[in-house]
Amino acid sequence: SSAHIGVTGLAVMGRNLARNFARNGYTVALHNRTVSRTRDLVRDFSDEGSFIAAETAEEFVAALERPRRLVIMVKAGAPTDAVIDEFAALLEPGDVIIDGGNAHYADTRRREKAMRERGLHFVGTGISGGEEGALHGPSIMPGGSAEAYDSLRPMLESIAAKAPDGTPCTTHVGPDGAGHFVKMVHNGIEYADMQLIGEAYHLLRDVAGYSPDRIAETFREWNTGRLDSYLIEITAEVLSHSDGATGQPFVDVVADEAEQKGTGRWTVQTALDLGVPVSGIAEAVFARSLSGHADLRSASSHLAGPAAAALSPDDAERFAGQVEQALYASKITSYAQGWNMISSGSQEYGWEIDPGAVAAIWRAGCIIRAVFLDRIRAAFAGRPDLPTLLADEHFSKEIGDAQGDWRTVVATAVQHGIPVPGFSAALASYDSLRSARLPASLTQGQRDFFGAHTYRRTDRDGSFHTLWGGDRSELSAD
Ligand code: NBP
């Protein structure tokens, strides 16, 4: 029994994670339901480090040093429950199960409780960065007991991505479902970012009249500034790629129906339950869903749109600069919504998540990695009680400087009939938040009128109801 850690589930993620541990000097026990995957890994990569191949669950558990630490990397949902049950029966109090799959945080809360009652540690761990990240350094978001995190910390720190300042991209996010919760929000933010970038592309293409190559160049230029990020970088790569078969721009031969695996949808469903507005993420999820409705789209293709000519080259150049401003301002707004959601979840479940630490571990390894994340980290580090990112003086200054161009871009998009649900939802969120008065007072009046739902007043405490069907006098409803 000499393996430092074990990995069960050796499809692309598990295999690469196991290799990452081995490359960092750890002896790794290997297991997979289908034994051939285990054998293939040892055959192909045994020169990278020390592996102990196990063909049965019993052999696998016997190969681990105590307290045993085993990572489960199987399909989320029922397969994860089946594998947890199989191994929990073979483990002893104090052993640590790490679920690195994309579990829903509510499942993780249930599983952690069940394992805790058996004396086992359960660490629900969000892992971002795809297969490359798993091999070269992912962003790792573990949730569970502090004791379990302490026993994993050196290993997780050694396999994690390193931020530009050298800090490993992992931290103890919080108890039970906290890690999978922040991973879910990460994916929601990723959806919103991709939607915003897509809208910027659409505007540069159809309003500025730029070619995909020219747009790729524009993104490359933006990637040297405050938008410097993995997603902007790969956007330029995708846009400058030509299709081998036709020689057309790749982006023109791909069907425009975006798919989704479900973490964006989970984010929005959870946000609705928590009552936290994440309109940017919601619009991104709905935009993907709309794109896939070929039936609705073809039934609507006859609808009238505006007649607006593409801009002149000089105007196009100015407009591209304005789109950069709109993209950046929308991004700040959408990240603010994501962090508001982390704060709501943390309060709801008593997780005490450190918002700056989350930004810190997303600086490298994960899909939304960006220079911008270090600014978010710094904002929370400078002011741990910061109620929302928009309250930070640097971000509010930047967004204030950008708002004129942001409005121009949204207005121009509307005039040209280009859908910008992400840009406009972000702007509406910004304007709603800064408004001194919202029409919600009228909503309250309507609710009181038809349902006697009562309202509060601006000038006195208490709840009130107006006798709408009678003499319209006001009663105290307390
Ligand atoms: P998959 O999600 O495709 O799962 C395949 C693995 O699950 C195989 O090892 C398979 O064993 C095993 N498995 C299944 Br399916 N049912 C099982 C069962 N009833 N009992 C035991 N094992 C079972 O693999 P993946 O793409 O490597 O992802 C692994 C996890 O990591 C998932 O939860 C995924 O959501 C998450 N994740 C993926 C990415 C990514 O970029 N792909 C990123 C971050 C997280 P078999 O070989 O015997 O069929």
TrEMBL record:
A single GO BP term for this record reads: D-gluconate metabolic process
| Annotated residues for binding of NADP(+) | 9-14, 32-34, 74-76, 102
Q: Kindly list the positions annotated as binding substrate.
A: 102, 128-130, 186-187, 191, 261, 288, 447, 453
Q: Which reaction does it catalyse?
A: 6-phospho-D-gluconate + NADP(+) = D-ribulose 5-phosphate + CO2 + NADPH
Name the Pfam families for this protein.
6PGD, NAD_binding_2
Q: How does it assemble?
A: Homodimer.
Q: Which residues form the active site?
A: 183, 190
Q: In which pathway does it act?
A: Carbohydrate degradation; pentose phosphate pathway; D-ribulose 5-phosphate from D-glucose 6-phosphate (oxidative stage): step 3/3
Question: What is this protein called in UniProt?
Answer: 6-phosphogluconate dehydrogenase, decarboxylating
What role is this protein assigned?
Answer: Catalyzes the oxidative decarboxylation of 6-phosphogluconate to ribulose 5-phosphate and CO(2), with concomitant reduction of NADP to NADPH.
Q: What is its EC number?
A: 1.1.1.44
Ranges for domain 6-phosphogluconate dehydrogenase C-terminal: 179-469
Question: Which GO MF terms are attached to this record?
Answer: NADP binding; phosphogluconate dehydrogenase (decarboxylating) activity
